[in-house]
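Q: I have 183 residues here and want to know how they pack in 3D. Can you give me a structure?
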Amino acid sequence: MQVEEAQREVRTVYLGGFVGQLVSGGLWLLSAALSTWVAPARGILVLVVGGMFIFPLTMLFLRLAGRRATLSKENPLGSLAMQIAFTIPLTLPVVAGATLYRLEWFYPAVMIIVGAHYLPFIFLYGMWQFGGLAAVLIGTGVALGFSSKGSFSLGGWIAAGMLLLFAFIGRSVVLKEQARRAD
């Protein structure tokens, strides 16, 4: 399988990241809401623990929609996807250190790490749009980290909005590609 074919399969199976971004965006929304209206600790817990379920929930929702939820065994990018997924839990100690130093750095730190984790998606999916998502998350995370006048949950709300927006952008890219191939 050639790289371009493998990337097309990733885009097609995962709808350009649509379902995964919806799940992730929903999780960030719930986390931001809990941080805003209940307690920051609840929002932190939901994002950290809930993050472990993003990929399984994505697969579940794809199956419930009647879609295939896994790549073919011939696709060499399946291993890359797994490696990318493990970058988040392996970097959580950095988030913990930042948060213990300054509570308001939780969302900015996670935004930077999640944004950096999206950079290899550019190759995985063959979609430059993931570079835009990475830039927005990283840039906003850095800006919020240097700002001392933000609310604790502001980064959570911004990340949720960006993830949900990019879900629909990714879906649009794949639907247009499928329409072109059908013609």
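Q: Anything worth noting?
A: Residues 3-182 form one domain. The chain has a mean pLDDT of 93.
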